[in-house]
Model the fold of this input.
Amino acid sequence: MSEPKAVLELFNSELKAVNMGLESFAETLLKEQVPTVQVDWRPPAGGDPDLINALDRIEKTTKVDVEAANAEAVDRILKGKPVVVGIGKALDVVPGMRENLILHAGPPVTWDRMCGPMRGAVIGGLIYEGLAAGRKEAEDLAASGKIDFEPCHHHAAVGPMAGIMTSRMPVWIVENQTYGNKAYATLNEGLGKVLRYGAFSDEVLDRLRWMEDVLAPILNKAITLHGPIDMRGIIAQILQMGDEGHNRNRAGTSIVIRELAPHLVMLDDSREQIAEVLSFLNSNDHFFLNLTMPASKSVVDAAAGIEGSTVITAMARNGTDFGIRISGLADQWFTRPAGIVDGLYLPGFTAEDAAPDIGDSVITETAGIGGFAMAAAPAIVKFVGGSPADAIAFTEKMYEITLSESDFYKIPVLDFRGTPTGIDLMKVVDKAIYPVINTGIAHKEPGVGMVGAGLVKPPENCFADALKAFAEHYG
Done:
């Protein structure tokens, strides 16, 4: 019996293949000169039945309108207008701050669980406050129960790396003019051997005291003369100038100098002190980081606490745990062990020296800049590794897990497309695509400081845990 005509035509025609799944199948066909299209397809939630069930429960829930809740959360983020209104003493301006309280980066962590660089920063903070005379006395005090440790995030604040904030420290005050909420962060010390990387030598402490006694008062007076500094406008500019607002801040720092310089020279302080301030700003390209962080915090905080929203409102690391918070789940943290950063190391250091991922600076990615805007800053790869093409690919991938694009923050190389904004927990888990984060690397031992910078992937189970809890609460 003859074969059907259609079958004969199929086997006599040129073979063209569409491959879904393992790329090795497509590669084999291509080696045999067979035209092949590889389809980038993955099963929902990586094929995990529990996560698929959680996604289904959320999509079918009648308890709350998740889509409307997310629309409100994203709208609040997009409408946020952060401005710098001044510098104050942490004890006087940070909500809930007290003399025996040390704020730290990331989710809650106790002294006995703290990583090396955070312990080093705590030691330095206690000596700086005059509560301890040296390392041993500081360690004993930290372990005594007389010092309270709480996350910066619990006090409308954020801190880079170890993120240590003590009562005496000067802090930026950033207000979200649209919604009236404020956020706070310490002033940036520079790179290398600094407190936030766990160093606490006399050099580090002397710099902190100078920042308290000279830098902060002079900058605050200049801001008073200038008036509120529009951070949204400046961040929009820096993305056109090669910064991404997290690990590349050269343009941002330069703009701040330009904004304040005419007012600095009008002050009654000595020429020598004003020169010191300008020299410090000029030599510290990362000075702007401690402004983008509270700016991002003030914007994303306005979207927190919206019933039924799956928008991620915080991602943070303390060197022991990585944690996230979800708008619709109040103040819960979902944590898993922090990972090791894959990056470039300073001369004399290797991955063996690295502490686990640490810092609140990922608030910039949470707000849609930083790693999410790497396409705007191709030179960032010289600091964190990779290639300019990788920087573009990272940003393009983030559009798949976000709900909107910024109306203000545009990326030239992407035809001025807005940065990906509003990370959706459901999209992250469904597509198994995780937020890209670029970051610094601290030495694992207290007292050493910075050893490199790179990229880190957050632990997947943070997002899985949050999704299951959300489905349990609302499903």
